[in-house]
Specification:
Blueprint (H helix, E strand, L loop, with lengths): L2 E5 L3 H13 L5 E6 L3 E2 L4 H7 L9 E2 L9 E4 L2 E5 L4 E4 L2 E4 L2 E4 L4 E2 L7 H4 L1 E2 L6 H9 L4 E7 L9 H16 L3 E6 L10 H14 L2 E4 L4 E5 L2 E4 L3 E3 L2 E5 L2 E2 L2 H5 L23 E3 L18 H19 L11 E9 L2 E8 L7 E8 H19 L2
Parallel strand pairs: 1-2, 1-9, 2-5, 9-20, 11-18, 12-13, 12-18, 13-14
Antiparallel strand pairs: 3-4, 6-7, 7-8, 10-19, 15-16, 16-17, 21-22, 22-23
Helix pairs in contact: 1-8, 2-4
Bound molecules: flavin-adenine dinucleotide.
Flavin-adenine dinucleotide binds next to helix 1, helix 2, helix 8 and strand 21.
Length: 379
């Protein structure tokens, strides 16, 4: 009996499992492995920090994939052997005819000394309840939203957070000055200068200071040290740099300290029957950047991988290819969002435009979550 093993039950892994189940006959077994027992959307973290909703409200048990005919195994992937299409999960060896590796990106909050002690981490799901409490009790002052290193999932998230913080403090009557610091030379380099100007003028219109070329070195109480300067803060919210999960490096799927390289169009890793997708794969764009780490891309890649696996099991040449189109919603406050959409793998540079802000883009963001949770988990 044919067996497909999916490592990772995040955006890409779940989308791959659901799509494979649609395409493969019922006698093909599909197993999905994750150390967590649940799934939620990344943007819930911003909502949870701001007290707009909770992570729990958007959390779904991975086990409910079993109703579709996908076996779910909770455990830690300790090793991957691409040559034999197998993995070790909590010490037990699982073998497969096709292997899909979708383990995401691993946050590195310790990369900047002092961050854990003196900052709030937007990307730390379990820490968000305490972080939201700190924010709620913030009496006012200087708020620093700091990109601690790159890359990180959802490049618009810190800018969106800054815009929503302005609205948050305004609503509460709290006097706060909000600044965003980034090690990069512009807000969203992959989008190019014209689109960055749109985002940056939006920040300016909301009286948010944007400070590019600020590479953090360390944080102490009340001050952050950058390579060439320092800035004082009363509240610091950081977005940590992310790394490729160590187990990918140990397996040889990624070189030491690098991200997994897979064919940008087929997501094949070079080992027959082994695919990698989502945040752990670095796909270069024509302007010398990398495809942003985003759920929408992981999902699209998962559909390509599923179609290629299904074709090869049916004895047909795989035709599906990844095109690099995608979208994301950047909330600006006031019940509206911008829509960033386009072809990120276009030549000679990504062909991306920013629409809005408009209320319908915010509604589309909510629908983006609602529709996936309904299809994948039954509501
Ligand atoms: C604040 C925020 C806002 C965001 N907003 C958007 C948005 O608006 N639109 C969008 O498209 N994307 C958004 N994202 C990004 C999106 O969440 C990620 O890009 C997406 O989840 C990546 O999917 P993935 O499958 O590659 O990885 P993940 O979804 O991270 O899944 C990886 C899974 O692998 C598991 N895992 C890792 N290592 C192991 C191991 N050794 N053993 C067992 N399990 C393991 C993890 O538990 C995890 O469940 C946002 C992210 C954040 C943080």
């Amino acid at each position: 009996m044919t067996h497909i093993l999916i490592l990772g039950g995040g955006f890409g892994g779940v989308a791959a499992g659901v799509e494979l189940r649609k395409l493969l006959p019922a006698d093909h077994r599909i197993t999905l492995v994750d150390r967590r027992d649940h799934f939620h959307f990344g943007f819930r973290k911003t909502w949870a920090l701001l007290g707009e909703s909770t992570l729990a409200a958007g959390q779904r048990p991975l086990k409910s994939l079993e109703r579709l005919g996908i076996a779910v195994r909770q455990g830690n992937v300790d090793a991957i052997d691409p040559k034999t299409r197998s993995a070790s999960v909590d010490g037990a060896r699982l073998e497969a005819d096709a292997l899909v590796v979708a383990l995401g990106a691993q946050s590195d909050p310790d990369g900047i000394p002092g961050f854990r002690e003196y900052g709030l981490d937007l990307y730390d799901g379990p820490g968000l309840v305490a972080a939201a409490e700190r924010l709620r009790n913030f009496p006012g002052g200087r708020v620093a939203v700091v990109i601690l290193g790159i890359p990180f999932p959802c490049p618009p998230a810190p800018f969106e957070l800054a815009l929503l913080l302005r609205e948050y403090f305004g609503r509460k009557g709290v006097q706060a000055v909000v600044d965003v610091y980034s090690p990069q030379s512009m807000s969203l380099p992959v989008l190019g200068q014209t689109n960055c100007a749109i985002v940056e003028s939006r920040l300016e219109a909301s009286e948010i200071g944007f400070h590019p070329n600020h590479t953090p070195v360390s944080i102490e109480p009340g001050a952050i040290h950058f390579k060439t300067t320092r800035a004082a803060f009363d509240l610091l919210i950081g977005v940590p740099a992310h790394r490729c999960p160590g187990v990918a490096g140990a397996s040889g799927l990624a070189a030491a300290g690098e991200w997994v390289k897979a064919d940008p169009r087929t997501l094949e890793t070079g080992q027959p029957g082994v695919y990698a997708l989502g945040d752990m794969v670095a796909i270069p764009t024509a302007n010398g950047k990398r495809l942003p780490q985003a759920g929408v891309f992981a999902e699209a890649q998962a559909k390509v991988v599923a179609a290629r696996i299904a074709a090869s099991f049916a004895g047909k040449p795989p035709q599906a290819t990844y095109e690099g189109t995608g979208f994301c919603f950047l909330e600006v406050g006031g019940g509206a969002a911008m829509l960033v959409q386009g072809d990120f793998l276009a030549e000679p540079e990504p062909a991306v435009q920013i629409l809005g802000p408009a209320p319908e883009h915010l509604q589309a963001k909510h629908e983006f979550e609602r529709s996936r949770l309904a299809e994948w988990f039954g509501g």
